[in-house]
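Table S2 (continued). Query chain:
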Amino acid sequence: MFRSRERPVAAVPQAVRWMLAAALALQIGWHAWRPDPRAEASPLGPVPTAPALQVAALGDRAAFARLLMLRLLIHDRQPGASIPFMRLDYARVAGWLDAIIDFDPRHDAPLLAAARLYGSVSDPVRQRTMFALVHRRFLEDPARRWPWLAHAAVMAKHRLGDPRLALRYARAVTEHAIGPNVPAWVRDMSVLIAADLGELETARIIIGGLLHSGRVRDPHEIRFLGARLAEIE
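Corresponding output:
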């Protein structure tokens, strides 16, 4: 008959049994004492240089710009760690956004992220950093980038509580975003903000400029501006 070759525990020398028990106890104690492993979030890397981006893109600037933007957007979600926007280095974030815009000026995601994502934190300093970037880059292509500066104007007025900054952004949109796709409320926003501030002369100048520029053709908007001008005068 087949007999098992396994030896009973009693056959193991007592000293060996004590050694095994001690090793097991030490292992259990070590795991109980050792603190839980904590994932450490890595900081956002340095802003890549234009020549480095040119080489890495392999000739497809648009596709690579989108990969760069994705890399930036997922930085706050790392394996085992989540970085609140309040802890991000916004100067470096702004540098990455600038680099991506420079690499592919037609890419809208950087300004969208600056105005609506990174600009939504409850930190006035960080918000102003993002809105200043939006304003600066808006002036390079107002016909396409006006939505992000219009949003920054609204945020400056209602979230920052800085109507003068809001007026500065709104006037930039009114004066520079002259494309046919700019809605009437965007053009007229600077008029309303100036009137709220009591800067009636500024509001009058803006209205006069709009009416005499030939850009306003909607009868409803013309009547609205005319009524506002009559109120001011």
